[in-house]
Design goal:
The complex is a heterodimer of chains A (260) and B (278).
Chain A: E1 16-25, E2 28-38, E3 43-47, H1 54-62, E4 69-74, E5 77-78, E6 90-93, H2 105-116, H3 121-131, H4 147-159, E7 165-169, H5 177-194, E8 197-201, H6 205-211, E9 214-219, E10 222-227, H7 229-236, H8 241-253
Parallel strand pairs in A: 3-8, 3-9, 6-7, 7-8
Antiparallel strand pairs in A: 1-2, 1-4, 4-5, 9-10
Helix pairs in contact in A: 7-8
Chain B: H1 3-7, H2 14-34, H3 36-63, H4 65-69, H5 73-100, H6 104-109, H7 114-144, H8 153-180, H9 185-190, H10 195-198, H11 213-217, H12 220-234, H13 239-270, H14 272-275
The chains are: A alpha/beta (260), B mainly alpha (278).
């Protein structure tokens, strides 16, 4: 196993670095010895079928799950032991995690802004509300919003601290195509403006093709492909990433090799 | 450095920690403020209890010289018991709010530290306790002429010992829910009631069978209720009892914090934080 250096202030450290990462729940291996390093400003998609290990990998990058062995480091901090040194530099968005329903959008953003220590919070909330078309919703309860509106609020919460590392778990799940496209555009713009690093778990291959400059494909907790979407499509001789995904999934289910 | 750090305030000082605690207190205050039925519920049960025991005591006072002498004994016990119950529930329910609203993942991913979450829950439990008990204490005075503040310093000692015990229970229940999820929710609601017979709320420790008395004496609230009986019946403040309760509370709080830390770690090992609320 490769030994990683201890956490420093993280300024020269990669945004995320995973070495020999393994997670076993009882007798089930959720993540099985994966390694990768993310460079600043990259957008990396974690792909794979249900149970491939995407969510567990992201959870270990967030420090919510402690690895069985190996390390997940963010800006040099070991997320199993030193996560509080870097949590203010990260954020995440997932449709499977909500903010409090009975608080208004403004109250929610105010609370998370305080938790992250955002300077000039009122102005920041106003700016982000304008940018994400939330101004008219600020005084409405989060629980009363539509799915699309909730996603915009979650996105506002995720961008409130201008994170250098953004973890997105199916950010456009259950959204209509127009809203999903709008969310992708916002993410693209944020990443290009802030040179933020993004880890994206998604089942939407069109979304991955559009946003990601790197694809890490997981199956049964192992990395079976790690390249750009274009390289992956070319190597498999397919037209789209979705076709590649289906080819890999069906070969995998038949027990065949993962080579094209 | 990066834009993120210039946009954010300092993260590691006491001021930063205080800011995060106050953010969480504000979050819970918004919940209390937004729902009058919830506020009414805070007052409802202590009020019903107080009225029921108060009228019972009034009835007994007409037929028994002891009950006449012990005016305020039942009402005082009810009020103090509700201090323990309301404070523990205030702590645990505030935490359960995060799971019910599927917000725990956001909090655990934020810079909020576990100790800061606990500080916020303690503060909120005190706020809820005041919301619940001030109107009920006022009613006790108006209906039955029982002024809890007439107990003076003794009341402060009783109150402090009971709320510290409630936080210890809150830490354990919160840790259990973190580790085992909403399946353990009932534990958070019910654990405090195990203490009702053991802490001798309405009767002296000597009433218990001999083998059970050491168990009762290992619990800080027992000393509080013994102390209440001493002051109401004999006008004696048992300072040594309050010190014994305080010493036990230090042990229980340390054990509660250790249990919380262990169960949080166990939840991270077993991946239950990710599945919470689903």
């Amino acid at each position: 196993m490769q030994k990683l250096t201890p956490a420093s202030n993280g300024s020269s450290q990669p945004p995320a670095e995973v070495r020999d990462l393994r997670k076993v729940y009882r007798d089930v291996s959720a993540v099985d010895g994966i390694s990768f390093t993310l460079s600043h400003g990259s957008i990396t998609a974690l792909l794979g079928g249900n149970g491939a290990g995407k969510t567990t990998t992201i959870a270990m990058l967030m420090g919510l799950v402690i690895p069985t062995s190996g390390q997940a480091r963010v800006f040099g901090a070991d997320m199993a032991r030193e996560r509080h040194a870097v949590l203010h530099r990260m954020n995440f968005e997932s449709p499977y995690v909500d903010v409090p329903m009975r608080l208004t959008v403004r109250q929610n953003l105010e609370i998370f802004g305080r938790l992250y220590g955002v300077r000039d919070l009122q102005a920041c909330v106003a700016d982000i509300a304008t940018d994400l078309r939330l101004t008219d919703l600020l005084d409405r309860h989060y629980g009363k919003l539509s799915a699309g509106q909730k996603t915009r609020v979650s996105l506002a919460k995720a961008l409130l601290n201008q994170p250098e590392l953004l973890l997105l778990d199916e950010p456009t799940a259950s959204l209509d195509p127009d809203t999903a496209d709008w969310v992708r555009s916002k993410l693209e713009r944020y990443c290009s403006e802030r040179r933020a690093t993004v880890v994206l778990a998604s089942h939407n291959m069109a979304e991955v093709e559009r946003l990601a400059d790197r694809v890490i494909m997981l199956e049964k907790g192992r990395i079976i492909a790690d390249e750009t979407p274009a390289e992956l499509i070319r190597r498999f001789g397919r037209e789209t990433l979705e076709e590649v995904f289906l080819a890999i999934a069906r070969r995998g289910s038949e027990g065949a090799e993962m080579e094209p | 450095m990066s834009g993120t750090q210039s946009r954010l305030l300092e993260q590691t000082s006491l001021a930063a920690s205080t800011r995060r605690v106050s953010a969480m207190v504000l979050r819970y205050w918004y919940v209390i403020r937004s729902s009058w039925p919830r506020t009414a519920e805070l007052i409802y049960w202590p009020l019903v209890q107080m009225l029921m025991w108060g009228f019972l005591q009034s009835y007994l006072a007409q037929t028994s010289s002891f009950a006449a002498k012990a005016a305020g004994l039942f009402i005082g016990a009810v009020l103090l018991w509700d201090v323990l119950v309301r404070s523990q529930l205030g702590f645990a329910v505030a935490f359960l709010e995060e799971i019910w609203s599927r917000n725990l993942g956001h909090l655990m991913m934020s810079p909020l530290r576990p100790s800061e979450l606990i500080a916020a829950l303690i503060t909120v439990s005190l706020i809820k306790l005041l919301v619940a008990m001030v109107p009920v204490a006022l009613m006790a005075y108006l209906f039955f002429g029982f002024n809890v503040l007439s107990l003076g310093f003794a009341f402060a000692a009783f109150f402090a010992n009971l709320v510290i015990m409630s936080w210890s229970l809150g830490l354990i229940t919160t840790g259990v829910v973190l580790r085992w999820g909403l399946g353990a929710e009932n534990f958070a609601w019910l654990i405090v009631f195990v203490l009702l017979p053991l802490c001798c709320v309405y009767y002296p420790v000597a009433t218990l069978p001999g083998w059970l008395q050491p168990v009762a004496l290992a619990l800080p609230p027992t000393y509080v209720f013994e102390g209440l009986r001493a002051i109401v019946l004999d006008g004696t403040f048992l300072g040594s009892y309050m010190l014994a309760a305080l010493a036990l509370n230090v042990v229980y709080f340390a054990a509660g914090y250790a249990a919380f830390a262990y169960l949080l770690h166990s939840a991270r090992v077993n991946g239950t934080l990710v599945q919470m609320g689903e």
